[in-house]
Write a structure and sequence with these properties.
With 213 residues, the protein is of the alpha+beta class. The chain has a single domain (3-212), classed as 3-Layer(aba) Sandwich (Glutaredoxin), CATH 3.40.30.10. 52% of the residues lie in helices and 13% in strands. The protein has helices at residues 15-29, 56-64, 66-82, 99-109, 116-128, 137-146, 151-159, 164-176, 199-212; strands at residues 3-10, 35-42, 54-55, 94-95, 184-187, 191-194. A four-stranded mixed beta sheet has the order 2-1-5-6. Helix 1 crosses helix 9 (199-212) and helix 2 packs across helix 3 (66-82). 33% of the residues are buried.
Length: 213
């Protein structure tokens, strides 16, 4: 069975990354004759976000302006509904620094017993649907436990800021590869697709790779 390797460069606070994940999953189901490996690579849309985060509505309005922010959110909810995502709204929701969330993904990716794709889904859902603060270590530890990670171990390692330097280096590596926005898909180390591509675009890329081989 032909194996296709997919790197997903993303940030859990990016709504289009959540849409892109759902579209990728739809594409994978259309090619059951292929074997896929998925590796998550970190990217921070705002690495300078304070570690305690900021109010999300205030941050969006400051970054995009009130009117544009509202238009973007309306469009996202429509797109999300098409992909089975119910983007939530909460006046107290936080825009977090995602470094700790990426550290958690780094640990999951290094552990064969943990499904990193499941963890990514839970992080996306916690932030975008439940409006939880995924910069909060208590929230991250609970999510980690839901995918089978040891809650006490995760809590202690997050508090010690373990592996943050490694994750920052991986973020820098993504930028060095020319990635300026996410989601960004690298297929078999040579084919690159930027943005939340429709499933049929991804399927076409898979088919081109198989044909080329």
């Amino acid at each position: 069975m032909k194996t296709i390797n997919i790197e997903i460069i993303s940030d859990p606070v990016c709504p289009w990354c959540y849409v892109g994940k759902r579209r990728l999953e739809a594409a994978l189901t259309q090619r059951p004759d292929l074997n896929f490996t998925v590796v998550w690579q970190p990217f921070q849309l705002n690495p300078n976000m304070p570690r305690e985060g900021r109010n999300r509505q205030d941050y969006y309005r400051e970054k995009f302006g009130h009117e544009r922010a509202e238009m973007m959110l309306t469009g996202l909810r429509q797109t999300g509904a098409e992909e089975g995502i119910s983007f939530g709204s909460d006046a107290n929701a936080m825009a977090p620094n995602t470094l700790s969330a990426h550290v958690l993904m780094h640990w999951a990716g290094a552990d064969d017993c943990i499904d990193a794709n499941d963890l990514a889904e839970k992080l996306f859902c916690a932030h975008h649907v439940a409006c939880e603060d995924i910069g909060d270590h208590t929230v991250l530890a609970r999510i980690a436990a839901e995918v089978g990670m040891d809650v006490n171990n995760v809590t202690a390692r997050l508090a010690a800021r373990e592996d943050e330097t490694i994750v920052k280096e991986r973020v820098a590596n993504s930028s060095a590869r020319g990635v300026t926005g996410v989601p960004f898909f690298i297929i078999n180390g040579q084919y690159a697709l930027s943005g939340a591509q429709p499933a049929d675009v991804l399927v076409s890329a898979f088919d081109q790779i198989v044909a080329a081989d």
